[in-house]
Amino acid sequence: FALQITGVILLAVGVWGKLTLGTYISLIAENSTNAPYVLIGTGTTIIVFGLFGCFATCRGSPWMLKLYAMFLSLVFLAELVAGISGFVFRHEIKDTFLRTYTEAIQNYNKNDERSHAVDNVQESLSCCGIQSYTNWSTSPYFFKHGIPTSCCMNSSDCNTQDLRNMTVAATKVNQKGCYDLVTSFMETNMGIIAGVAFGIAFFQLIGMLLACCLSRFITANQYEMV
User: Fold this and answer.
1) Alpha helix positions (H), 27-177
2) CA atoms within 13 A on the CB side of 200
3) What pLDDT is stored for residue 128 in this prediction?
């Protein structure tokens, strides 16, 4: 039951990660948006196999308990590798985000998914551009429409004419760039997810050891009875 609870926690973290970090992850790489679904799938699988573990315990079946322990060991190793990889390659993730966010600004058109993600980031974090609002001056979108309205400090005090003029826009838009804010935000929240994942992995390690011990105990009792 304790392991099923960890599965529910992992499932909840996956859903929370999708809702909270989905926009930011989509700006790193399109394939990375699958990460929350991996947590959701893993949590669901743990819940299902938790029921299998309860059934194996009630039946007193050594081979079922060994199968359950093997499953837990695979999940434990997968989580351990994922956690270590995320820590080792965290700087590469930052570099990738810088590159893809720059591309998103250069290809910004206000309509596609990446453009919506950029607007979401700029509005939710009250930032503009990569290092500052001046990064928009090199975007093709700027020459036609000016800086996006998602950069405005006060949407009611922003108009297209002002946003086309960098000097005037400087008094209308947020001054902070998004890169430092996004990476700091993601590090904080990814740290929470990593902490939960390692905590769950620890419980899985205990469950694996207990399943093996119970399997041996049942096998030894059956041998003595014979």
Assistant:
1) 35-59, 62-88, 90-106, 113-124, 140-145, 160-163, 166-169
2) 30
3) 92
Domain ranges of the chain: 60-225
- The owner of tokens 């093709």 is 140
CA dihedral 57, 60, 66, 70 (to 10 degrees): -20
Query: What does each C-alpha distance from 161 to 31, 141, 144, 149 come to in angstroms?
Result: 38, 14, 11, 11
The predicted model gives 101-109 an average pLDDT of: 89
pLDDT of residue 36: 65
Per-residue tokens: 159: 């108009």
pTM of the full predicted structure? 0.61
The helix or strand, by DSSP H or E, that contains position 178, with its residue range, turns out to be helix 178-225
Given a cut of 70, whether residue 26 has pLDDT beyond it is no
Q: Residue 31's pLDDT is what?
A: 47
- Within 8 A by CB and 6+ apart from 131, the residues are 177, 179
179-201: average pLDDT: 74
| Cβ neighbours of 146 (radius 10 Å) | 24
* Element containing residue 186 per DSSP (H, E): helix 178-225
